[in-house]
Amino acid sequence: MKGQKARDAAPLTNYRMNFSMHKLILKPGREKSLKRRHPWVFSGGIAKVESEPQLGDTVEVRSADGAFLAVAAYSPESQIRARVWAWNAGDIDAAFFMRRVATAAAARQGIAGESLRLVHGESDGLPGVVADRYGDTVVVQLLSAGAERWRGAIADALAVLPGVVRVIERSDADVRALEGLPPQNGLLRGEAAGVPLTVREHGLEFVVDAEQGHKTGFYLDQRDNRLLLRGLSKDKTVLDCFCYCGGFALNALAGSAKSVTAIDSSGPALAAARANAARNGLPEAEWLEADVFQTLRRFRDAGRSFNLIVLDPPKFAPTAAHAEKAARAYKDINLLGFKLLRPGGALMTYSCSGGVSADLFQKIVAGAALDAGVDARIERWLHASADHPVALNFPEGEYLKGLLLRVST
Ligand code: SAH
Fold first, then answer.
1. Catalytic residue among 241, 243, 245, 352
2. Does the beta carbon of 314 lie inside 6 Å of ligand 1?
3. What atom of ligand 1 comes closest to residue 291's alpha carbon?
4. Does residue 204's CB lie within 6 angstroms of at least one atom of ligand 1?
5. What is the pLDDT of residues 376-394, one digit of tens each?
6. Helix axes 358-372, 323-340, angle to 10 degrees
7. Which residues, listed in sequence order, are joined to residue 341 by a DSSP beta bridge?
């Protein structure tokens, strides 16, 4: 009787998983972060891998005493050896991706704009999956072994969202190499557009190169901050450092800036920025194809100054291991930025480095102000737009942090 009862009580899924699923058994004590629902299993925490899972296979994660913790995707080449798909036992299949993608899309329904991030990796319960929507086109990045394994299911789930006519893959980010994955780009679902991709944001149009441009083509995370700059720009002299295809610069022009100077080291990005400004009928700007570090020094030596300066550099520290070198680079550009500000001017400064916390970034910027000999106050703490949520159990999701600072008159 007793045995009968126990067998009946065991859910069918558990029964099946016990016999068919690959398992990762953790070292004693290494279950703690998973119990807090942090979705990464590091290689150093694993005691045993049972039944030879392959790249991207679904594995069951168990603590040293055998307790079930999660279902995860196996990344044999990465330090992050597994990424959690789900905290309860259940099948990881096409229906799972349909549900997760639909949930992520539904969560964005209250956010205005036709260009949005639809899926933001771990924070949407889909580690390694990033999907941006530009009108009827979705550009997806598959950045982990698990995401790679489920390419077809993820593409299908994105393609069936209302209004989506094509899904393009841009899986060429450096992080794929850490997973042992080659770059992969191309059309996944639907037909090629035949015309360049256009991003509409706050009434401005940007032509974006979805095949060659950075990330998925555009930096949607700065959407709200670009509008903030527009509101500050009237009659101001504005300097946009690391301007890419003109995101901030065009908003300064749209906000009736007195003058706009924009710098980027990429020729194609600057050509796109110029074309985007013309397309929107905006006034001329000074577009400089140059290194920001050198140009700011040149401006300082020439005695140039501005009312408003934006510093939106690339990721100097992809991980905490690069934090020290990155800190020097952030300090350098912020120090120069402070020196180029006119009295009463404002600095909008960002870090998109996962390896530099908001707290550390604020300390670096404070050190830069001190060395520049300026007195500055924080007017706002700046973040990515709401379509880039940060799961409470995944602080790494808060990669973009910024400060709006004003110096004394
Ligand atoms: N502010 C932009 C995004 C910036 S992305 C937006 O709102 O869309 C970072 C940019 O920095 C890229 O365009 C890259 O080409 C540029 N970049 C990287 N290193 C640079 C350097 N040392 N000097 C100038 N530009 C640089």
1. 352
2. yes
3. 23
4. no
5. 999 999 999 999 999 999 9
6. 40
7. 306
